[in-house]
Automatic annotation (TrEMBL):
Record field: transmembrane: 70-88
Annotated stretches, region: Disordered: 375-399
Name of the featured protein: DUF1776-domain-containing protein
Any one Pfam family match given in the protein's UniProt record, by short name: DUF1776
InterPro entries: DUF1776_fun (IPR013952), NAD(P)-bd_dom_sf (IPR036291)
Amino acid sequence: MTDAQFLFDSARQQYNDFAGGVERHFENVATQLKDWLPEQMRPRPPPPPRRLTPATYWNQVNRWVSDNTALSAGILAFVGTGAVLVFIQRTTHVKKRRARKSNGGARTEAVVLAGSPTSPLTTAIALDLERRGFIVYVVTSNTEDETHIRKQSRVDLLPFNLDVPNPGEAEGQMQRFHHFLSRHHHAFEGASSHRLTLAGVILVPDISSVAAGSILQLSPEAWSTALNAKVLHTITVAKYMLPLVTEFKSRILLLTPNVVSSLRPPYRAIESTVSSALGAFASSLSSELSLQGLHACHFKLGNIEIAGSKQKKDDSKRVRGTSIRKLHESIFDALHSSKPSRTWHVGRGSLIYELIGSWIPGGVVSWMMGLQQVPRNDDQQTPESDDSSSDRSITWEKV
């Protein structure tokens, strides 16, 4: 061993002894301090390590969503869409549909209703519009119609005598009605004046009362009567009302049954022809009014339940239709909406039978119609005048 090696080992040994002595000294001092300090001042031992809690339900859901992103997005979209639809439906249901009034509470919106005054559908529409705050004028042509309107005992449900076949007399009646709408009115003595406005003209031709039967058996008089009373009369009333509609920026609503005209079944030639003609007239009228920024709406009606109308004897087998409340709300929306639709499908079967008649081959539709018992009597058959247009669609609802 060299001298350098000896000195190095000796120095290392002395350092280790010194370090060991210092360590033992501090351990002795710590032990003495621990015995000297009171128990309250002693440092607390560190807390035990936390145990991992088992996965909760929420954590499991989060883990499943992370593993199934696409499926989770689909479920979320489905639930969200359903919630939005339910919210819209409830909002629409509770929406208050009332006509506008003046500052003094007087009625200011008038509606002209042209249809058979004794028809259950026309009467139901007139009474509902009057309840919603409109001044309703029902077009009449004889004393019987006026009496029927006045029997309803409604202050703001009034007959409007319009001599449609006599152009000179009808023009004078329209001028007087225009003057009545244009002048100032007072709800009561001392009240502030207000003016009326024409909210819309509603055309409700009673197509259900036309003759039924085979084309071979239908006489020219039956065709002439139906076309004059249903088509020409409706077009003429609309013509007389057009100046007022243009001046007051009103709406024209045309209501026609849609089931028979869509399927075009046998022994319903007149009804199908009348409905198709009125539908073509509604399209042309809507196009012309749109050039002036006005609107014409065609309501295609299916099976609608009218309270108080005559029902069939076998009520248990009759297919229930849409509540007439849906029609009332749609009419109000068409009168007050800023951009109403041109076509409205209201009533059970209105839209589906239009699709069937448009897309399914005629042979298949004829076969479907053959499943029903169609009257084949030699005499022409005319439906009862007090049946509503919705009752006429019940037979086709069973196809």
